[in-house]
Amino acid sequence: MAADLMWRLNGSLAVGPWPVTISPDLTRATLQNLSTLADVREIHGWNPYFTLQFADDSTFDVTVGHPGDGTLTLAEFP
After folding, report:
1. In 3-state terms, what secondary structure has residue 41?
2. What's the rounded Cα separation, in Å, for the pair 20 and 55?
């Protein structure tokens, strides 16, 4: 399943989107373009809370684990 990963400062300012492929259980994401990995790592260093936005414009807030090699571990943001 495809989605966009974004980091939101507030309702009107976001960084990204970074296209990702999401596992069916929403626990892993893989960056579709590894050239964006450095950007995701930098933002993650500030704050690990991101938003997934799907094609139907629905969103899901997640905590992203360390973005190692472009595969991201996701957990639902409380």
Report:
1. helix
2. 12
DSSP string covering 7-37: EESSSS-EEEEEEEEE-TTSSEEEES-GGGH
Q: What is the pTM of this model?
A: 0.90
Tell me the Cα Rg of the chain: 11
The Cα angle at residue 41 between residues 3 and 62, in degrees rounded to 5 = 45
Q: How many CB atoms lie within 10 A of CB 5?
A: 26
Q: How far apart are CA 11 and CA 26, in angstroms?
A: 23
Contact 16, 25 (CB under 8 A): no
Q: Delimit the domains of the chain by residue range.
A: 2-76
Over residues 32-62, the pLDDT tens digits come to 999 999 999 999 999 999 999 999 999 999 9
